[in-house]
């Protein structure tokens, strides 16, 4: 029988090892799988390459993971934040690498990895410094740059509802990068607010089909990054 | 004359080699029978490329929905835990390597794993490929179920395909009425004989050298 | 105010002119916008390039459009059908062109057009006659062919539910190519079984966001291709 | 000293040039004000690149959902007729040319339509681009709202951008506190002056030649 549920968060992430590439869902605070990230801090895994649109906020979640020195390299579109000094300080000190990718290219590279497309062409960055070193060519008289897929060993995802097959629903704009990251990672680990029986999610409404999910752990009352920041909290 | 396995027995034998929890895409014909022979204690999830994961058995007349069909355009049902999606997402599952096993019928399969199952290559034939080339390139394991010989007594397991390829070097196992054969770097290798079938007979009816089972 | 509803089918398709490229949703009979296709037959538009996975069934819908001599070229993955001799006869007589595209490549080329991606790489067709004449290259030691986007002037789509913004829901596997065709066509024309007020479709459940839709016409009791064929009908 | 338009008036003026039924993406800052000045009888649909079409006004404290924000990470609401989608679909709307108008702030805009609004290019600055480069390449019309001069009295409308480009030749209209300016093949052209502002003043504060209004 298919049952992707695991009973604890530490068990869900136990095989994320030093040097892994990890996609983390969320755009800003919305959709960030805080409990999974904090477990990764507890586990002490190091030398990570992390893919996320941003670099976290405050001193919790992704910012705390970075602040704890566990991240070797960030791949993101917008590493600055008004609410976090963690990444900027490490970056300015030369202690963390950055691969800057425009947001739409980041999304498309992730989707391409999930879809078995090793490279594609996009007009984004043409005529800018971010196109330097990239292969480019014309189609129908317009210039485009070639971009490669972006794969990962793991994806950490937060969902609203899940079943044992791994079918997922999200809450509003918390959806953001999570469905495509679930497609692109070798192993996709989900923390879900609710677990329901197969069939309780209408097949017409499924956002992430179960085939893209490997493990689900129930986190019935997830803390929200914005709430933690509002309380001035730091992790650990 | 040999007896060997029936179509149902071929499907049942192939089903034995599919792991619990596998995502499976079944081609039209004998492969479809696999769904009737899921081994005790296992659960397979069926993908159909027109946009359904979690395909269930054919509907009763009451259940039938004209908008719920499989890639072979037969009416089906959706199992608990199913999902619908559009065609680009469906082929992302295939091309992206998310489907574990695809079981296909074939016209020819070669000792190097080449498969030819989309066109005879006859002049004037209308070419029609569907999703076959996506499946053989994208799915993790490609299994073939086929009669060992054509109706005219010619081998379907051959040294090199004479018909246009669907994909090169993609097939890993072959289930015929006579035997289970694996494709290895050294060519065909027998895995198992059907009851009442001898290795000699299989060797004789195979259009390429075939190795005895690995010890 | 945004209101994409038009009051009649002939009005909805009036500007499809001779020589247009038209995507038609549906996989076999499921999701085929029969009423829109029949209106195109009534209108007599000729020299069309039609994009669909198949070539229609029986003597209704797409098969009837082809049989009526209105289609110059088909772009599809599977032009044979046990239920139609219309395309095969014209093709064998050299009276219609065919561009054969594997099904997944067809879907991805359509999606690419909608997503502003002029070309991408896929492993599909590598090592086969269908790769002949295509540019190919290696990524990470595996060979891929380059495929261009596939754009269209119009898309004809059948939906289950629509609102005046053009948000769409489909019924089961009738969804198939329709969401990506809606993205890829300059003008997307939808026949919908039901029209509802904005807000009645849960924003979490929308399959095709309204931005991809241009016109909606209500067809409250659409005939199903399989029903017509079962009745031995021909159009006109 | 000139008076010219306030931030609100700049936004209201830009809103006049957006057609009924337009799909609109608004940058952070003054562009966001446009939503408050939709002309009578028109309806705009707002796209926010994190995954919402049909963005509504900020929520009351009761309505607030921590998972419903815009690309500027401000809490928003969803209007009737809204839809949620993932990031690849969201940027398909942008890159695929489905958004009608994007209104952005800027640091510099050149007479050839080049825009520089993502990085000062100062050494040691942390680069951060977000969706800016996707928007300027993908959206049908790129409008800019900006003060005519920097805080230090330097022109923001220039012959060539000195800062790193966000995109080349993409801007069609510019709304400043002093004037509305269009980008033509012949360079900047005045469309309209703010009340109390003379053409001479605009000319003087623009870092490139500016043509008088077309007749």
Record the SSE blueprint:
The complex is a heterotetramer, with two copies of chain A (236 residues) and two copies of chain B (215 residues).
Chain A: H1 9-13, E1 21-24, H2 34-43, E2 48-51, H3 61-67, E3 71-76, H4 86-92, E4 97-100, H5 103-115, E5 119-122, E6 136-139, E7 142-148, E8 152-163, E9 168-169, H6 178-184, E10 185-196, E11 215-218, H7 225-230
Parallel strand pairs in A: 1-2, 1-8, 2-3, 3-4, 8-10, 10-11
Antiparallel strand pairs in A: 5-7, 6-7, 8-9
Chain B: H1 7-16, E1 23-26, E2 45-48, E3 52-56, E4 77-84, H2 87-95, E5 101-104, E6 108-110, E7 115-116, H3 132-138, E8 141-145, E9 157-158, E10 171-175, E11 179-184, E12 187-193, H4 199-205, E13 210-211
Parallel strand pairs in B: 1-2, 1-5, 5-8, 6-9, 8-10, 12-13
Antiparallel strand pairs in B: 2-3, 3-4, 6-7, 10-11, 11-12
Helix pairs in contact in B: 2-3
Can you describe this structure?
The complex is a heterotetramer, with 2 copies of chain A (236 residues) and 2 copies of chain B (215 residues). Chain A has 236 residues and is an alpha/beta fold. Chain A has one domain: Glutaconate Coenzyme A-transferase. Chain A contains 7 helices and 11 strands. In chain A, helix 3 links the parallel strand 2 and strand 3. The relative contact order of chain A is 0.20. The model of chain A has no long low-confidence stretch (mean pLDDT 96). Chain B has 215 residues and is of the alpha/beta class. Chain B has a single domain, classed as Glutaconate Coenzyme A-transferase (3-Layer(aba) Sandwich), CATH 3.40.1080. Chain B is 15% helix and 27% strand. Chain B is built from 4 helices and 13 strands. Chain B has a 10-stranded mixed sheet. A 3-stranded mixed sheet of chain B has the order 7-6-9, with no helix packed on it. Chain B is globular, with a radius of gyration of 17 Å. The mean pLDDT of chain B is 96. The chains are: A alpha/beta (236), B alpha/beta (215).
């Amino acid at each position: 029988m298919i049952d992707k549920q695991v009973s604890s968060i530490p068990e869900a992430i136990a095989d994320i090892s030093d040097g892994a590439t990890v996609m983390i869902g969320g755009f800003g605070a919305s959709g960030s799988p805080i409990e999974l990230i904090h477990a990764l801090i507890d586990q002490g895994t190091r030398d990570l390459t992390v893919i996320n649109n941003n670099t976290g906020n405050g001193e919790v979640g992704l910012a705390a993971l970075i602040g704890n020195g566990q991240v070797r390299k960030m791949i993101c579109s917008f590493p600055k934040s008004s609410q976090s000094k963690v990444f900027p300080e490490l970056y300015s000190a030369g202690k963390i690498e950055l691969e800057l990718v425009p947001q739409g290219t980041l999304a498309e590279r992730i989707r391409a990895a999930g879809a078995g497309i090793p490279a594609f062409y996009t007009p984004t960055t043409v005529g800018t410094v971010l196109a330097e070193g990239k292969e480019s060519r014309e189609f129908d008289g317009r210039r485009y740059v070639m971009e490669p897929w972006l794969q990962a060993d793991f994806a950490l995802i937060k969902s609203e509802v899940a079943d044992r097959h791994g079918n997922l629903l999200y809450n509003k704009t918390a959806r953001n990068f999570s469905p495509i990251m679930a497609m692109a990672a070798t192993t996709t680990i989900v923390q879900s607010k609710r677990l329901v029986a197969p069939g309780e999610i209408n097949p017409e409404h499924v956002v992430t089909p179960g085939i893209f999910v490997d493990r689900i752990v129930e986190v019935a009352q997830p803390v929200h990054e914005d709430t933690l920041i509002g309380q001035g909290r730091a992790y650990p | 004359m040999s007896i060997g396995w029936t179509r149902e027995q071929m499907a049942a034998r192939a089903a034995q080699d599919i792991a619990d929890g596998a995502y499976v895409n079944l081609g039209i014909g004998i492969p479809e029978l696999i769904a009737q022979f899921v081994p005790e204690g296992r659960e397979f999830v069926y993908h159909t490329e027109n946009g359904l994961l979690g395909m269930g058995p054919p509907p009763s007349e009451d259940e039938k929905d004209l908008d719920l069909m499989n890639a072979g355009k037969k009416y089906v049902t959706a199992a608990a835990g199913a999902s619908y999606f559009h065609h680009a997402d469906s082929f992302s599952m295939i091309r992206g390597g998310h489907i574990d096993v695809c079981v296909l019928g074939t016209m020819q399969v070669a000792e190097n794993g080449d498969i030819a199952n989309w066109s005879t290559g006859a002049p004037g034939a209308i070419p029609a490929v569907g999703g076959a080339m996506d499946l053989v390139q994208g799915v993790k394991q490609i299994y073939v179920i086929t009669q060992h010989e054509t109706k005219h007594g010619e081998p379907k397991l051959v040294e090199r395909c004479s018909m246009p390829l669907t994909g090169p070097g993609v097939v890993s196992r072959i289930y015929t009425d006579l035997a289970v054969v694996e494709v290895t770097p050294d060519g065909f290798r027998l895995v198992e004989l059907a009851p009442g079938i001898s290795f000699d007979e299989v060797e004789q009816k195979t259009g390429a050298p075939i190795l005895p089972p690995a010890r």
